[in-house]
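Support case: S-adenosyl-L-homocysteine complex. Customer-provided input:
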Amino acid sequence: MQRYFIDQVVMTKEITIKDADYHHIKNVMRMEKDDLIEIVDLKGCLYLGRIVDLNNKQVIVAIEEELKENNEFDVEVTIALGLVNRNKTEEVLRRAVELGASKFLSVKLKRSVVKHIDDKLDRKEKIVKEAAEQSKRSKLMLIEETKSLKELIEYSKDYDLKICCYEDAEKNTNSLKKLLKEKYEKILVLTGPEGGFDEAEIEVLKANDFKMVSLGKRILRAETAPLAILAIIAYESEQS
Ligand code: SAH
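Agent response - structure generated as follows:
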């Protein structure tokens, strides 16, 4: 069933949906009166709704019942990605939502080929919303402001596990498998840009309690590494 994240709190038995979601319901999904949809409201509550009317550029939905379902990880995972171009960033955003990340941010690093991307938050939020609806997330992934390494280190202070994915095998002293055996509330994962990390950056990260981990013997692209680690975290935390 199609899911919609709406920007209102469900407080009445009937709600009105307009704009992009109206367009999606009517013209993309070609839904009709009496079709059922799932709605996640601003409070994160999930409801089953029945379409009672879709005319005049709005859909009227009757709330049938509140559904109890949680498709989120037990742990909050933030992906910090070395700054890459807009296409790659958007690709990572989509996949990170599918794979369960709670937050995303870009980090300006020395070897980032791109020095700046326009933070078109509207466009990024649209991508996140669509991916969350498709993958049936219970919550929207938050996009944080782009940070420098210094700012990231400050930001990382309230995380109880900080991981840096680093392909340089000799310097990898931590087993990801062992690290993920513990229970955490918040994990921060940093992955590098196309050019990887600079040695000095690695030293700063280590000094600030980032654990260097390997994702295997092969070198992954900047846009693949965050997805690989999210899949590993999902496997370790959700498999019984
Ligand atoms: N050092 C290379 C590759 C960078 S790959 C270069 O100079 O071109 C981009 C990022 O993906 C890396 O910074 C790292 O965070 C991550 N990554 C890629 N392969 C990895 C691996 N096998 N283990 C851990 N991290 C990896």
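The longest strand covers residues 46-55.

Case will auto-close in a few days if no follow-up is received.
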